[in-house]
Amino acid sequence: MGDKRLVVKNRGGGWDVRAPGAHNPESQHATLAEAERAAEEWRQKARDGKVSIIL
């Protein structure tokens, strides 16, 4: 598992949490807030992880 995750808008209008360069998202969410929460949970587990939100 890498040390970075991206929160990006998907084609369906929702939000994905994915590792940079990954083809498939780790999780998909209806709202940006839900995706941010999921990415923050990942960051807390990774300890030194970084989350970037791409608008």
Explain what you see.
With 55 residues, the protein is an alpha+beta fold. It has one helix and four strands, in the order E-E-E-H-E. It has a four-stranded mixed β-sheet with strand order 3-2-1-4, covered by helices on one side. The radius of gyration is 10 Å and the shape is globular. The relative contact order is 0.30. The mean pLDDT is 92.
Properties at a glance:
4 strands; alpha+beta; four-stranded mixed β-sheet; 55 residues; 1 helix
Globally, the shape reads: globular
- State the strand order across the main sheet: 3-2-1-4
As a whole number of angstroms, the C-alpha radius of gyration is: 10 Å
Helix percent band: 25-40%
Distance between the termini: 24 Å
% residues in beta strands: 25-35%
- Mean pLDDT, to the nearest integer, reads 92
| Strand segment count | 4
What pattern of helices and strands is seen along the backbone? EEEHE
Low-confidence stretches: none
Helix/strand/pairing class, anyone? alpha+beta
What is the count of DSSP helices, taking H or I runs of 4+ residues? 1
The major β-sheet equals: 4 strands, mixed
Q: Write down the oligomeric state.
A: single chain
Explain briefly what this protein structure is.
This protein has 55 residues and is an alpha+beta fold.
Which helices and strands occur, and which strands form pairs?
Layout: E1 4-9, E2 15-18, E3 27-29, H1 32-46, E4 50-54
Parallel strand pairs: 1-4
Antiparallel strand pairs: 1-2, 2-3
